Amino acid sequence: RYLQTVQRENDDLRAYTCVTEKTALAAAEKVDRKLAAGEPLGPVEGVPMTLKANISTRGIDTDCCSRILSGYRPVYDAAVWQILQQQGAVLLGKSNMDEFAMGSSCETSCYGGARNPHNTGCVAGGSSGGAASAVSAGLAAYGIGSDTGGSIRQPASFCGIVGLKPTYGAVSRYGLIAYASSFDQIGPLANCAEDAAILFDVLSQKDPCDSTCTGARCAAVPALQQSLKGKRVGLAAEYFDGLQPDVQVALEQAQKVYQGLGAELVPLSIPEIKYALPVYYILACAEASSNLGRYDGIRYGIKAEHYTGVNDMIAKTRSAGFGKEVKRRILLGTYVLSAGYYDAYYKKAQMLRRKIRHAFESVFQQCDFLLAPTVPRTAFPFGFTAQDAVETYQTDICTVPVNIVGLPAVSVPCGFDGQGMPVGMQLIGGAGHEDIILNAAHQYE
Ligand code: GLN
């Protein structure tokens, strides 16, 4: 049924960049045989799903929606896909994304951006736009995405679904094609908080292949039924600046729901949030410029056909293979790392990163979790992000802080704007406290 829906809807939604029908049917048949034999099934066994196009799958296209990796099929599986395969997951295909996960609308994808099922004139968000579009429209039961500065939560918010960015290090990134390694984290996009909790508990395992991966510090599913009576919901004023009026109204209603559930609202302030955007875009671009150095026409993907020498070959391959946004970030990242500017930009941003981390640490002495908008607005119409890159970067203001400090956050649908487009709220927890935010999300639902 899912494959039929994908066939029917995908031309319209552009959620999938590659459909793995044979793999899906083979996995489903295996589960059928187990069912027929009366064997019990695991929590994700037989459930049809999609992986973002930057998660390595052996023998299956993993091109990050970039021309430079066109036709690239990895020789190994990412850790998350190893776990899911062992547990009997059914892979329907790879989902659309911004090129190398750089973007907020999925429009930098070489396939064109995934469309929003609530209004196909609007983007599904980015960078994991394909997964959000697929889950929202019933083209997959869940998706696995990556979040460097909001790429799971922002598309989840735009498409009216749940998206979880786990604590940095909770889920292995072995086999995730790197964008900005000190920010990247893998997580689920799902229909509800309970599904996200099940997936978090399955995926968060220690992995010796990713030295930053320590696994989960909590179990999310057993915590889902806890009462919110007496819990303190932090409201940091800085997150509520400059919201679209409909988003503000939806967030105010969400606060009332929490009061109704017995929680206490705690107004507070995190002034350091004002540094988050420049810190993120300086450090993420610096790391990207280094990570993307490997695409030289020799090791992976495409290679220029006519060239005069090795430097010319590399230049021609990269000029043809990378899109405009990726080039912009490589140039910006190279600039902030260059000898004359390192202290003024990169080093300063690192110092501010520490300051922001300290600020967030003290916040969780005042509250159990933070409630904030996921994005200051609802989904953009197509073409919006092409007009002004900086204005687009600014819409990431509510999502990037937790990536800077490594904290977990979940986006949960909390209403609609006047045009019927979904609004998302974000619940942010202390390090290792996916249980608290997923419980709060589940109680809200
Ligand atoms: N929109 C942000 C960026 O363009 C975040 C992307 C992401 O999380 N991968 O960098």
From TrEMBL:
PROSITE patterns: AMIDASES. GO terms for molecular function: ATP binding; glutaminyl-tRNA synthase (glutamine-hydrolyzing) activity; transferase activity. The active site is at residues 52, 127, 151. Its EC number is 6.3.5.7. It catalyses: L-glutamyl-tRNA(Gln) + L-glutamine + ATP + H2O = L-glutaminyl-tRNA(Gln) + L-glutamate + ADP + phosphate + H(+). Residues 1-437 form the Amidase domain. It is an enzyme of class 6 (ligase). GO terms for biological process: translation. It comes from the Bacteria. Signal peptide: none annotated. GO terms for cellular component: glutamyl-tRNA(Gln) amidotransferase complex. HAMAP family: GatA. NCBIfam families: gatA. Allows the formation of correctly charged Gln-tRNA(Gln) through the transamidation of misacylated Glu-tRNA(Gln) in organisms which lack glutaminyl-tRNA synthetase. The reaction takes place in the presence of glutamine and ATP through an activated gamma-phospho-Glu-tRNA(Gln). This is Glutamyl-tRNA(Gln) amidotransferase subunit A. It comes from Caproicibacterium lactatifermentans. The gene is gatA.
